[in-house]
Amino acid sequence: MTVNAVPSRGTGRKVLLTLLVGLGMMLAGLTGAVAGGMAVYLAVGSAGVTSAPVLPAPQAQVIPASIDINTAVTQAAAEVGPAVVTIVNHLPPQASFFGQPAEATAMGSGVILSSEGYIVTNNHVVDGAESLEVILADGTHIPAQLIGVDPFADLAVVKVDGAMPAVAVWGNSDTLEPGEAVIAIGSPLGDFQNTVTVGVISATGRSIDTGSGYQMEGLIQTDAAINHGNSGGPLVNLAGQVVGINTLVVRGSSFNQAVAEGLGFAIASNTARAVVDQLVANGYVSHPYLGIRWQAITPETSSGQGYPVEYGALLNEVEPGGPAAEAGLRAGDILTDVNGQAIDANNPFINLLFKHQPGEVVTLGVLRAQEQIQVQVTLTERPRA
To answer: Model-level pTM?
Structure first.
């Protein structure tokens, strides 16, 4: 993917200092809260796109050398706010306390990124929908069509018809620096539409273990308040550009009782745009496929089950006629590396696999009956449900 944005840090250290001083008092009271949804790993290239991207390319970020922080925030919010929407997910009716079907809905946020009506949100916002509805910033309700989802990316695209009130533009997330001011816009709790919160980029390139055998990588960490209902809304820089898609917050650790505040995370815009382009062009994202059922080996499971390695992927089943079977892999094999990169705590198997595209030949390190061998496999495209 080609990105033609101008680095935001080009305005120099004086700008950053000016922004931080102005933000000092403002940010003292901001904290995070719970946001819904499952974090997912993103490592998607441009393979599979069969037509030119529909959504506009990122724009160069231009911030004046001397700027009032309040003016910058209000101007960016005014520019992007009309493009932020509330997404209503009408779920299948649920049995009520009295046994009667009751309407069930879930709500999240999204952002209009095309004059044709394409709206980006999180997959978990639209998951399981019987129908979708979009509420514009002015309160107008419009039926929405689901264009495509990528559960691994936790991203989705929906589309509405008619004239768009505004269209947000992509920014270049690769130029973000810790301390840079950002704005989160969305509908916390589904009721407070177009809420604006302000914070800074706390860090970039963060990874979070999803607990499902893979990590979410390349995340933007921010202390801008993100709550349940903000999922799918934009993280915006002071130039009024979308630099991230808000996806979750972390409230604490399962290993202790400490409660964390101000730990919000967003999918980087450059990663999100690569996924969204494929969803708009094809309705799906092309992922590599091996044709196996597997379980992750960790130091804990290795100790309990007596596996010969601390990290790896144990093959429970190999699909007949699939890529793995064609390459000679068998149930009981343990995958230890992909193209020479070891599977470990920082590099789960699925993360390593998703760095490759359908059609590529990869070399897998395999432990079979105490013998370490190498097997070459030609990846195919993951079947779509």
So the answer is: 0.74
Contact present, 194 and 185 (Cβ < 8 Å): yes
The CATH number linked to 244 is: 2.40.10.120
CB 214 within 8 Å of CB 157: no
**pLDDT tens figures, 19-43:** 333 434 333 333 333 333 333 333 3
Task: State residue 68's pLDDT score.
Answer: 73
Phi/psi of residue 225, each to 5°?
-60, 125
Using only the alpha carbons of the chain, give its radius of gyration: 22
Dihedral of the CA atoms 273, 19, 262, 344 (nearest 10)? 50
Examine the domain organization and report whether 12 and 123 are in the same domain: yes
What are the strands, taking DSSP E only, across 172-263?
A: 181-186, 195-209, 215-222, 234-237, 241-249
| Alpha-carbon gap, residue 136 to 140, rounded angstroms | 5
Kindly list the catalytic residues: 124, 154, 231
- Note whether 274 and 305 are same-domain residues: no
C-alpha to C-alpha distance for 330 and 324, rounded to whole angstroms: 8
Q: How far apart are CA 21 and CA 65, in angstroms?
A: 15
Q: pLDDT tens-digit profile of 58-82?
A: 665 555 544 577 889 999 999 999 9
**Which tokens go with 18?**
């000016």
